[in-house]
């Protein structure tokens, strides 16, 4: 029951306060990661050396923080423990931030202001936003809501429920390092492989639970068909099921050719046949919110049943 209480408190904090901005621990961790990468990623073209320094850098950054998280989880009890768990989870999730970023794109799209919508979507995706039409902006934002729902909400909830404070801290660190180093470019091809592989590993189960959540709360038949047939075509083993099932649940079409600064990237089409628009962005946000309520309900039910069995 205490885990459920911590989850609820964390979501309340997120809803009321949002993210703490520049004072966010993840920002500080990211700055430290940048310094470490500059210090050790000195020979990106030398595969074995770069692979070794990449693994070493990941361990160097994570070990002290994980040690503190383990110590806190072992020593704290009672109300102080629940409060600490709630604050830690609040700092890891970003449900309000996801909602605000999505609505910032959907609202100008609904008003027909493409330029503002392009500017806002450029804040959440790496695409060449100025080259996107209305449908392209909406598809990009819809994809971001579905994928970040998995990374920034459900994966954090999952690892907190599985391993408490150490679990959610470990996942957030790995996910942050993957976002910073997990690029397939000359600088990070080898150095960033450790972070990318660890992120794939930690995200495997949460991604599929997220896909299942989306499927249960939308068009089940289409979501399952998209998950089964389309997800394997995606280049990410975790983003594929999440976005395919999510797009199928909404009946919306995402993916396809997209402009990036390096050129047009031809990606598989995911989902149904309905063109993306402001409504699909808002529907994706609602899908994530409903998924959170579903998870809370399942956790509460599990806690009640466990207490009945124990007593």
Please tell me about this protein's structure:
By secondary structure, the chain is mostly helical. It has one domain (2-310). Helix content is 73%, strand content 4%. It has helices spanning 2-17, 25-40, 47-75, 78-92, 95-111, 114-121, 134-181, 193-216, 220-229, 239-250, 278-310; strands at residues 253-255, 258-260, 263-265, 269-271. The strands form two sheets. It has a two-stranded antiparallel sheet. Helix 5 packs antiparallel against helix 7 (134-181) and helix 7 (134-181) crosses helix 11 (278-310). The radius of gyration is 20 Å and the shape is globular. The mean pLDDT is 94. GO terms for molecular function: ABC-type vitamin B12 transporter activity; threonine-phosphate decarboxylase activity. It holds the Pfam family CobD_Cbib. Converts cobyric acid to cobinamide by the addition of aminopropanol on the F carboxylic group.
State which percent range the strand residues make up.
under 5%
CA radius of gyration: 20 Å
The biggest beta sheet reads: 2 strands, antiparallel
Query: What is the H-and-E element order?
Result: HHHHHHHHHHEEEEH
Spatial strand sequence of the major β-sheet: 1-4
- Separation, N- and C-terminal Cα atoms: 14 Å
- Structural class, please? mainly alpha
The whole-number mean of residue pLDDT values reads: 94
The tally of domains stands at: 1
Low-confidence stretches: none
């Amino acid at each position: 029951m205490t885990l459920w209480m911590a989850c609820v408190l964390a979501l309340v904090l997120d809803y009321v306060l949002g993210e703490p901005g520049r004072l966010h621990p993840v920002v500080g961790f990211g700055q430290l990661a940048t310094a470490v990468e500059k210090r050790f990623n000195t020979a990106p073209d030398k595969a074995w050396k770069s692979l070794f320094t990449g693994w070493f850098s990941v361990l160097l950054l994570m070990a002290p923080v994980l040690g503190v998280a383990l110590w806190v989880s072992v020593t704290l009890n009672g109300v102080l423990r629940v409060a600490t768990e709630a604050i830690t989870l609040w700092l890891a999730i970003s449900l309000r931030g996801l909602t605000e970023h999505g609505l910032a794109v959907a609202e100008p799209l609904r008003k027909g202001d493409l330029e503002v919508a392009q500017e806002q979507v450029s804040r959440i995706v790496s695409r060449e936003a100025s080259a996107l039409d209305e449908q392209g902006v909406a598809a990009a934002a819809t994809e971001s809501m579905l994928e970040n729902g998995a990374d920034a909400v459900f994966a954090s909830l999952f690892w907190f429920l599985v391993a408490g404070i150490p679990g959610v801290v470990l996942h957030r660190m790995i996910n942050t390092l993957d976002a910073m180093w997990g690029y397939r470019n000359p600088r990070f091809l080898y150095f960033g492989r450790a972070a990318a592989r660890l992120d794939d590993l930690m995200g495997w189960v949460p991604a599929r639970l997220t896909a299942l959540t989306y499927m249960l709360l939308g068009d089940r038949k289409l979501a399952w068909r998209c998950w089964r047939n389309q997800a394997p075509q995606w280049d990410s083993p975790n983003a594929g099921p999440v976005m395919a099932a999510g797009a199928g649940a909404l009946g919306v079409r995402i993916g396809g050719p997209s402009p990036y600064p390096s050129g047009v990237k031809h990606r598989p089409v995911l989902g149904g046949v309905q063109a993306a628009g402001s409504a699909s962005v808002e529907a994706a946000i609602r899908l994530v919110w409903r998924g959170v309520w579903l998870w809370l309900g399942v956790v509460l039910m599990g806690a009640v049943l466990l207490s009945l069995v124990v007593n």
